[in-house]
Amino acid sequence: MAHIETINVTQNRGETASAGLVAIGVYEDKSLTDLGQALDEAGDSVLSKAMDLGDVKGKSGETNMFYINGQRILLIGLGKKNKFNASGVRLAAGKASRAAISKKVGSVAVECFCSGLESCQAMGEGLVLGSYQFLDYKTKDEKNFELKSATVIGCDHDEITKGTAIGKAVCFARDLANHPGNVTTPSRLAEEAGEIAKEGGMKLTVFDRKEITAMGMGALAGVAQGTDEPPKFIVLEYFGSDESQNPKILVGKGLTFDAGGISIKPSSKMDEMKYDMCGSAVVLGVFKALAALKPKLNVVGIVPSTENLVGAKAYKPGDILTAYNGKTIEVLNTDAEGRLILADGLSYASKHYEPEYILDFATLTGAVLVALGHVAAGVMGTDEDLMRLVKESSVNAEEKVWELPLWPEFCKQVKSKIADVKNTGAARQAGTIAGAAFLKEFVGDRIPWVHFDIAGTAWGGKPTSIDPKGSATGWGVRLVLDLIDA
Ligand code: BES
Ligand code: MN
Ligand code: ZN
Predict the structure, then answer these.
(1) Whose CA is nearest to atom 14 of ligand 1?
(2) Residue 363: CB within 6 Å of ligand 1?
(3) Catalytic residue numbers?
(4) How far apart are the CA of 287 and the centre of ligand 3, in A?
(5) What is the pLDDT of residues 354-391, one digit of tens each?
């Protein structure tokens, strides 16, 4: 766990005098932000002169380091002034953190170059996200430097506090996923849920293998048959509002390692299947933020969790399992296990609550990577209004989604000849939609629902100043927090 823990806010520019690095901004029209102007005057117009030479263009993403009176000044390009928004603030803030880490300065000060309150939140998020590093297993690496705090000059205090909490929740989700399968086990997920429950005054219920089986969660129990690692069914309840307000429910796939089962995966890159619990990381990440922000909302988080391994007791292709809602499932591929454990999660959510809506998050199909790469999550659902809200929050959080059609033609493809449904669709066709079509069978009628297939976005995308190279992204935490209006 290495990232900024606290961000101080000051309205006093004088406090930058002792900072090891001061980050300021410049737009494409060559206008400097306020503190920048003051520093330029104090520093013999060194910034203006660099602009005159054409070396500083103010393009977004550009950074230049100056040294004024012995102090590091990072000049960050902000792009066109009229196009500069919260997402620009987030990325620029990330640059400031990255620069502080590369220069190993613990005292970084950043000028508020925000255009409004939302942007101040983004400033907090960006500073924390840019400071994220996963260093837990480097026992003696002197090159490592952890950035623990930052100071922002001129931002709104409450919005920075909110942004910091959200950034930390995303880092928490990244950490859960980056830890290997022998550390992030179902038991570990349950323990982390316990910590969150304590922090946020929430109710936690965890069912173990015996209870899962006795309660009739045959799909989760079926997948968990092949591993000695104890499976868990985790329920976190946050009731920050009136009990009468219907809860928003988040369900996340907590598959802590996916070998594919008897329908085993190829060995190349199988290590990446430690990330198959990223759906559960979205849910727990959101609850981490709820514990800190304590909004007036009712939210329930559900995480079915197990490994999917190969062994003498493992479930087999052809097996028929009965899910928590009583529907029977013909297993045609043991590697399509995510939808099985979610079937019980969604059934439980539909039976025990009257949800305002259900969202589920899962690294469900390789097919979504073929369709959308690491750029966008595939979304499918049953309610146009909810889908519209999802798309709006996707824009606000700058976490891209793309809707795929859940047409009846696809829903028919998961009907089984001998059971109610089967866990595969048409061979090599519309695999991501088949996943959603299957899940739909376990969502109660009339409950608005959206499924997020995050197999492409949860890790391995193009690195940016706020997104890591190769590893877990924590994708979705920010989108959900915007959507539920935390
Ligand atoms: N966890 C995988 C999906 C996955 C694959 C995520 C690659 C990230 C990268 C999931 O459990 C799975 O194996 N899905 C199968 C489904 C198929 C057998 C119907 C897949 O996508 O191949
Ligand atoms: Mn699988
Ligand atoms: Zn999986």
Answers:
(1) 365
(2) yes
(3) 265, 339
(4) 23
(5) 999 999 999 999 999 999 999 999 999 999 999 999 99
Name the residue ranges covered by the structural domains of the chain.
7-153, 168-483
Are 382 and 406 within 8 A, CB to CB? yes
Tell me, in angstroms, the distance from the centre of ligand 2 to residue 34's CA: 53
Helix (H) or strand (E) holding 307: strand 298-308
Q: pTM here?
A: 0.98
> Is 453 close to ligand 1, i.e. is its CB under 6 Å away?
no
Task: Please list the ranges in the chain whose pLDDT falls under 50.
Answer: none
Question: How many residues comprise the chain?
Answer: 486
Q: How far is CA 214 from the centre of its chain?
A: 33
181 lines ligand 1 (CB under 6 A): no
Domain 7-153, CATH number (from 3.40.1160.10, 3.20.170.30, 3.40.220.10, 3.90.550.10):
3.40.220.10
β-partners of residue 207 are 233
> What's the DSSP call for residue 31?
P
Q: What is the mean pLDDT of the chain?
A: 97
Q: Are 220 and 304 in contact (CB under 8 A)?
A: yes
Tell which CATH architecture fits domain 168-483.
3-Layer(aba) Sandwich (3.40)
416 lines ligand 1 (CB under 6 A): no
